[in-house]
Amino acid sequence: MTAPPFVFNNKTGELRRQGIVTTLCRLHADIFNCYATAQTPIGAGAIARAIRHPEHSIKDEIPVLVKRLKPLGILIARTTSRGGWLEFEDVPKWKPTIAAPATLPGEQRG
What we know:
Helix 1 (about 25-35) crosses helix 3 and helix 2 crosses helix 3 (about 55-70). The longest helix is centred in the middle third of the chain and has 15 residues, at about 55-70. By secondary structure, this protein is α+β, with helices and mostly antiparallel strands. It contains three helices and five strands; from the N terminus they run E-E-E-H-H-H-E-E. The model has no long low-confidence stretch (mean pLDDT about 85). The strands form two sheets. The protein has a three-stranded antiparallel sheet with strand order 1-2-3, with no helix packed on it. Strands 4-5 form a two-stranded antiparallel ribbon.
């Protein structure tokens, strides 16, 4: 089995990928851990049973977790019948947007 393309500390909720670090709250860390350790697509009901939370709260928190994982290039792919799984994309490198220099009326550029 190959190493996952991320480093996750379940105790602290710290998640690292491609030089980007984020810290997840306890509930999001538990949900992410279920996705990371699952060998097959997993649904909200199975996650709720695994971490002993109500299923409706897990369903509400998954979209919030997806937004937290987006900057890391981690997606939760979903199908309606089988549940979800983790997918990874390349994190785009940050490029600054530098505006052209401003010129004043009558100013000459040399």
